[in-house]
Amino acid sequence: MTNTLGYSKYEWKNKNKNTDNSRNGHSKKTVRSQFGEIDLKIPRDTNSEFEPVIVKKHERTISSELEDMIVSLFAQGVSNRDIESQMKRIYGIEVSPEMVSRMTDKILPIAKEWQNRPLNELYPIIYLDGIVFNVNQGRSNSKENSLCRICNNHRR
């Protein structure tokens, strides 16, 4: 909205505005996602010049990219409130913590199932490491690599 109007939310009293357009509240919109219905607040302006970027006008479904972003942030341990503030800061859209909870609640059973899956009794492990030595060979010095590989050979 700030880009459309040319001034920030808190400069509305500024006499030097170059436009007669101003903020005019918001409208509510319900969109469908793979995680269920989500309520959004879409900002409005008096001249109807504002075009939403993420969920366009007349769209009733939310992009899978946005859903993936929210789920990815949640998977990284970001709190619902922090996800809300990131969506506001990056995309300029307001998503409630409840909406984030509804989205993440849909994936929790899948995550729990993965966490509680049966594990194999044995996993092969390979350790790789290397070191560089400065080697003095008469009048010249060279760097020699020494690589190390350790395998557990499936031992218990």
TrEMBL record:
The identity of this protein, by name, is: Transposase
Write out the GO biological process terms.
DNA transposition
UniProt cross-references to Pfam families, sorted A to Z = Transposase_mut
Q: Which keywords does this chain's UniProt record carry? A: DNA recombination, DNA-binding, Transposition
Q: Which GO terms describe its molecular function?
A: DNA binding; transposase activity
Q: What organism is listed for this UniProt entry? A: Candidatus Methanoperedens nitratireducens
Q: Where, if anywhere, are coiled coils annotated?
A: none
